Amino acid sequence: MKHHLLRAFILTAFALLIVYLSRSNQLSLYIAPRMELYVKLSALGLYAAAIHQLFLALKKRRQQHQHTAECGCEHTPSPSVFKNTVIYSLFIFPLALGFFSPAGVLGSTAAAKKGVSFAASTNVQPLGTEPGQLAASLPEPSASIAPKPPTLEERFPYDEYTKAHAEYGMKLYQKPNITVPEATYIETLTTLDLYRDNFMDKTIDISGFIYKEDDMGEQRFAVSRFAMTCCSADAIPYGLMVQVSSADDYKGFAADDWVSVSGKLMTSMYNGNEILTLKLNTIKRIEAPESPYVYANYDF
């Protein structure tokens, strides 16, 4: 009977942990918003399983008898104290961590292990956006006629996979200053990377935490945010490299500080790759947002 009671306690504790994380607004630190409903519904299943274990405990108490191989009832688990302690500890330990350890936010330490992605367009390649490919596809102007600038549509060629980014890029192109918003953080960085030639020297505003690696040198650092797909285990940091004239330009700022930076978009070489880079204009410290992670916008 005691095993059923202990199982009921563990199941109830897991359900209460979900409720606690939800009420304290910490659930989003572990899973993406689109998964929260399923996790909350699972708490109901845990409650139901706990009630079933209580029922079995009461039933066993009322029907105590001498067990035999032919009685057909459920027999007690192993009498080994060590074995039972190990098995139940596998469930109690994560519960203790969930209730008593402070909720952590992924930052520079995790970014160093995962590596910051400076090429948001890695998995999306539009037609005609390789360096020089767009220019080569445009008709050669006559020597006696002034060259005609490409139309907006010609600047943003697309295929079936990048149509939404091309349309978004046309809107961004017409803005004097471009802000990377939280709701479309990944999509904005992807668009800037896909059509980078169209956005050179544009003023870009972006916020995130400071990430620094030794091979970046003293005149560069990254501003990034973790993008979560399902849960914190699959979160990947995306961001932009920031170029400064000297280390004094961001003196007083340290890794994991949340900042808002503004600068002119350009490119630079990093680890053998040409990446988007901001030439710093301004930097200011900001409070960490309530939700430090960003998510793919499925309405994009």
UniProtKB/TrEMBL annotation:
Keywords: Membrane, Transmembrane, Transmembrane helix. Residues 6-116, 159-295 form the DUF1980 domain. The chain crosses the membrane at residues 40-58, 86-107. Coiled coil: none annotated. The keyword Transit peptide does not apply. This is TIGR03943 family protein. It holds the Pfam family DUF1980.
